[in-house]
Amino acid sequence: MTLEEIHGQEPVPAGHDWMQGAGKALHELLVSAQRRGCLTAGVYESAKLMNVDPDNVAFCVLATDEEDEGDIALQIHFTLIQAFCCENDIDIVRVNDVAKLAAIVGPSEESGEPRDLHCILITNPNEDGWKDPALEKLNSFCEESRNVNDWVPTIALPE
Asked: Which one, of 9, 25, 36, 26, lies nearest residue 101 by Cα?
């Protein structure tokens, strides 16, 4: 018996189109945020930003590859980031392909070096808030996932 059966809830539609829509929205959001200068990449950089200005964080992406699954320090950082995001009502998703993220986000603009893409934060650039359709779609996706107790849903990025 699953938790959904116990509570009488229907599971989140796991259809290919629904998941693909979330992946496409995440791709659009990352491109748009980078263009606007609203993207912070890196576990430590993200932790610093969340400590200084948590109200300005709109969305969080945690990314791993298979080889990262055994990295205990990274998993501890993820646990702390997830707790912080939940406490501050910041939607959060996981991506299991750092290479695809790197293809979307690219290297650091300042140094041209590859970035730490294990944690990416999307921030609001101004007090008015940022009304991005992709962000709104991802917020809905996260809300629907939480309704079936999937607090950190995994999204597959499009090819």
From this structure: 26
Residue 42, Ramachandran bin (φ over 0: left; ψ between -120 and 50: alpha; else beta): left
DSSP the chain: --HHHHHTPPPPP--HHHHHHHHHHHHHHHHHHHHHT-EEESHHHHHHHHHH-GGGEEEEEEE--GGGGG-HHHHHHHHHHHHHHHHTT-EEEEES-HHHHHHHH-S-TTT-PPP--SEEEEE-SSTT----HHHHHHHHHHHHHHHTT-SS-EEPPP-
Q: Which of 11-15, 84-88, 92-96 shows the lowest per-residue confidence on average (mean pLDDT)?
A: 11-15
Q: pLDDT digits over 9-65, tens only?
A: 444 445 545 566 899 999 999 999 998 889 999 999 999 999 998 889 999 999 998
pLDDT, the chain, mean: 83
The confidence band for 127, taking pLDDT boundaries of 50, 70 and 90, is low
| Strand ordering across the sheet containing 57-63 | 39-41, 119-123, 57-63, 91-95, 154-155
